[in-house]
Design goal:
- The protein is of the alpha/beta class.
- It folds into two domains: 135 residues, Aspartate Aminotransferase, domain 1; 242 residues, Aspartate Aminotransferase, domain 2.
- 42% of the residues lie in helices and 13% in strands.
- A seven-stranded mixed β-sheet has the order 2-8-7-6-5-3-4, sandwiched between helices. A three-stranded antiparallel β-sheet has the order 9-10-12.
- It starts with a strand and ends in a 6-residue tail after the last helix.
- The relative contact order is 0.16.
- It binds pyridoxal-5'-phosphate (PLP).
- The site of pyridoxal-5'-phosphate has 16 residues, from α3.
């Protein structure tokens, strides 16, 4: 099988599992317990926090371990917006982009439904980019928070996060970014980026599903969503997932090891070769997303005259596993809101296929996959009128 769905999830890296193993077995203590086992767990948690903070370039106290990217996004958006509104009731608007992951969009909609907020959605251009001018157009004195993703999970477009965060800061508005897809291939130093909050997920970079991180700059207030024993400095109660925290921290350390920029450049070169091979096999394939500012391990195309779902079936028959959009939208027949927001018609959006990979992919796998794409498109087009709508 050629696995080209790394944006959906990745397998656990051996080093990560080995680092986690003691905390799943012998060192199983609860970090709140005052005995040796508890202290060992507390020590592991503190070390994981320190490693994560070193990766992000922040203070250890600014790191909260969560159950994944979705929880980190929920906590950031609801937690920051509600805390700001509690301090100043005038603050009743949040800004998100038109291409956010549902974890961000639905958190904002929750604030709208239950807390009287308005959600201002900033449009993207045809390449999926939020320009600083577009963001400027939706900022208001009542804006409590801006949340714009670092890199899009469906088309791979990378946002000008530094500029967008600087603009928000200029207006005194906290800026959150969902960096779930960026982690592992793009720089994530929160000082350089100038962001106030940032979400990560373990399973996109070789840690298990169900563990993630939220960075929130120290001075920023945040209302917890989960109440209880006050763990994670009161931001997220519940007995900590020590093995998960160790896993995500180890995966971040490995992502940072050696020359990360060189690895990303190598991956981008493989991606560009794959894009060229797909376009040679299917001359009318349309690459979606920004031509340059894009994730090094992601290429998404529309194949006019086909159906994305049928292509997935054909490709899997040939041993190539990929996705028709985001994993979260899988199983839904509705065209991707991300592609629609970029101005792609619903008919063409139905023909999208996303290929995503990390540096474990080989050039041979990518050329085999590109040939399989050519063959699959030919077969699906041959089905003609029998295609699902
Ligand atoms: N944000 C983005 C951009 C994602 O791609 C995903 C997962 O697909 C998430 C958030 C959710 O992360 P998790 O699966 O850890 O809840």
């Amino acid at each position: 099988m050629i696995y080209l769905d790394a944006a959906a999830t990745t397998p656990i890296r051996r080093e990560v599992l080995e680092a986690m193993w003691p905390y799943l077995t012998g060192d199983f203590g609860n970090p709140s317990s005052h005995h040796t086992l508890g202290e060992a767990a507390a020590g592991a948690l503190a070390a994981a926090r320190k490693t994560t903070a070193a990766f992000l370039g922040c203070r250890a106290g600014d790191v909260t371990f969560t159950s994944g990217g979705t929880e980190a996004d929920n906590l950031a958006i609801k937690g920051i917006a509600l805390a700001r509104q509690a301090a100043d009731p005038m603050l009743d608007r949040v800004v998100i982009s038109a291409i956010e992951h549902p974890a961000v969009e639905e958190s904002a909609r929750y604030l709208e439904r239950f807390h009287g907020f308005s959600v201002d959605v900033v449009d993207v251009d045809a390449a999926g980019v939020v320009t600083p001018a577009a963001l400027q157009g939706v900022l208001r004195p009542e804006t409590a928070l801006v949340s714009i993703m670092y890199a899009n999970n469906e088309v791979g477009t990378v946002q000008p996060v530094r500029e967008l965060a600087a603009l928000a800061r200029h207006h005194g508005i906290p800026f959150h970014t969902d960096a779930v897809q960026a982690a592992g291939s793009l720089p994530l130093n929160v000082k350089d980026l100038g962001v106030d909050a940032l979400s990560l997920s373990g399973h996109k970079l070789g840690a298990p599903k169900g563990c993630g991180v939220l960075f929130v700059r120290g001075r920023l207030g945040i209302e917890p969503l989960i109440h209880g024993g006050g763990q994670e400095r009161g931001r997220r109660s519940g007995t900590e997932n020590i093995a998960g925290a160790v896993g995500v921290a180890t995966a971040l350390r490995l992502a940072d090891a050696g020359d990360a920029a060189e690895r990303a450049a190598g991956l981008a070169a493989l991606r560009d070769g794959f894009i060229a091979a797909v376009q040679a096999a299917v001359p009318d394939a349309v690459l979606s997303g920004h031509p340059v500012h894009r994730l090094p391990g992601l290429a998404s195309f529309c194949f006019p005259g086909t159906s994305g779902e049928s292509l997935l079936l054909e490709l899997e028959r040939d041993g190539v596993v990929c996705s028709s959009g985001s994993a979260c939208a899988a199983g839904s027949d509705a065209p991707s809101p991300v592609l629609l927001a970029m101005g792609i018609s619903p008919e063409v959006a139905q023909t999208a296929v996303r290929f995503s990979f990390d540096s474990t992919v080989t050039p041979e796998e990518l050329s085999t996959a590109a040939r399989a794409v050519g063959a699959a498109v030919g077969r699906v087009r041959g089905l003609g009128d029998r295609l699902p709508n």
